[in-house]
Design goal:
By secondary structure, the protein is α/β, with parallel strands linked by helices. 29% of the residues lie in helices and 21% in strands. It has two domains: 104 residues, Roll (Urease, subunit C, domain 1); 279 residues, Metal-dependent hydrolases (TIM Barrel, Alpha-Beta Barrel), CATH 3.20.20.140. The protein has twelve helices and 15 strands. α1 links the parallel β6 and β7. The protein is globular and about 70 Å long.
């Protein structure tokens, strides 16, 4: 692929500036304020005057369902959905069959990734065997191939095992990314939220999350292991993470679009509103929004989790946990925060590209000599979210019909065009 991009707004050194980009055979050969080519240039020349370019977005928390659950989704299909959302790298969670809890099991997933993925897919290994909280997985054997370790979908209740995992992960220089949830011991004290209380539905207590965050942070103090709190949903968790960062601990936290934009007064009794942790109160939402703005929660992550239509058609009580989000993440947050003036576009790039790429130990800057790995987008372009247009096999998400701004136009990975908007 030979392409000269003219007059784009290119994100470099933490800011956007007008640049031309020259690709030859899919490799970036120049990034300059002004470039020209000879008349016999064998390629395309395109003016991107109103378009923006960034290194490909990164999402450290997704579920691609293979191996084991291809009826929900496949690595091929969901990696294409990721590209449609502007993502060129994702970290896939390990609630699979078989669980990636040893090297042979992990290799089954790696083989599918190598064969089918159109972007970079880095799996997580489990913390415990089959995520059953009984015995540690083979962390050392998996270390060269994984983004880190997680028993996502369940919390690791066994503190002795978790401390051992922290110590090993520290030795391996890999993070633990924790779904924090202690089982509720007393259902009578569950904070069910406004909607759940009104309709007599069970809830998931805030304490089930923040008490595990509190426990794990003590282990971070002891070990110095890098620690990431998945899908933060409570104001108490936010406060704990903020204090840990002030103390200099190696801690990061994820903000997901649905916790930033929704609160429990906006729920409907539909499966597309069911996720774990649940949408919580206005006070929790306000704390998460503030933390997203002030860099306490520095990583935007979707927890993209496809399910079959049947699994998501049984209301809040009986539907499976999980929604999709890769194809709407940028537009939702751009609309809610950038277009309203709460956040600059540059800061959104920090949350959706720079911080998650640093977490994965990947390059954040576009560089001459590398194969093209970038996304082209128009932050002003308006559309209405319609899940029928998703490339993801999953369609359930709470923002159906919402008007948003921010279209992904092109996504390049490994020197190839892996997504092109039909309107381009």
């Amino acid at each position: 692929m030979n392409l000269l991009i003219k007059n784009a707004n290119v994100f470099q050194n933490d800011k956007f500036s007008k640049r031309d980009i020259l690709l030859r055979d899919g490799v970036i050969t120049a990034i300059e304020p002004e470039l020209s080519v000879s008349n016999n240039f064998n390629g395309h020349i395109a003016r991107y005057d109103h378009f923006f370019i960034s290194r490909g977005f990164a999402d450290i928390h997704v579920h691609f369902r293979e191996p084991g659950y291809s009826y929900k989704a496949t690595i091929e299909q969901e990696s294409k959905a990721a590209a449609a959302g502007g993502f060129t790298v994702v970290g896939t969670m390990p609630n699979l069959d078989p669980y990636p809890d040893n090297l042979p099991h992990l290799q089954e997933q790696l083989a599918i990734i190598e064969r089918d993925a159109v972007i970079k897919v880095i799996p997580y290994g489990t913390v415990t065997i089959k995520s059953q909280d009984q015995e540690l997985a083979d962390l050392k054997a998996m270390a060269p191939y994984v983004a880190g370790f997680s028993d996502d979908g369940v919390g690791v209740e066994n503190g002795t095992l978790m401390l051992k995992a922290f110590k090993i992960a520290k030795e391996l220089d890999l993070p633990i990314s924790a779904h924090c949830e202690f089982p509720d011991k007393n259902p009578g004290v569950i904070h069910a939220g406004v909607f759940a209380k009104k309709h007599n539905l069970p809830g998931i207590s805030s304490k089930s999350e923040w008490s595990m965050v509190q426990r794990d942070l003590e282990m971070v103090k002891q070990t110095g292991c890098q620690y990431n709190v998945c899908h933060v949903s409570t104001k108490e968790s936010v406060a704990l993470i903020k204090e840990a960062k002030k103390a200099g601990l190696p801690v990061s936290g994820e903000a997901a679009p649905h916790y930033l934009i929704l609160n429990d007064e906006e729920l409907e009794d539909l499966g597309r509103f069911k996720m774990n942790p649940p949408i919580r109160s206005k006070e929790d939402q306000a704390a998460i929004r503030e933390a997203f703005l002030d860099d306490t929660l520095e990583i935007l992550a979707t927890d993209h989790a496809p399910h079959s239509a049947e699994e998501k058609s049984q209301g809040l009580l009986n539907s499976n946990f999980g929604i999709v989000g890769l194809e709407t993440s940028f537009a939702l947050v751009n609309t809610e925060f950038v277009q309203t003036g709460l956040m600059s576009l540059e800061t959104l790039m920090q949350r959706i590209m720079v911080a998650p790429r640093k977490f994965l130990k990947l390059e954040t800057e576009l560089k001459v000599g590398e194969k093209a790995d970038f996304v082209v987008f128009d932050p002003k372009a308006e559309y209405v979210i319609n899940s029928n247009n998703f490339l993801s096999k999953g369609k359930a998400m709470p923002f159906e019909g919402k008007k948003v701004k921010g279209k992904i136009l092109n996504t390049f990975y490994d020197g190839k065009l892996v997504f092109q908007n039909h309107e381009m």
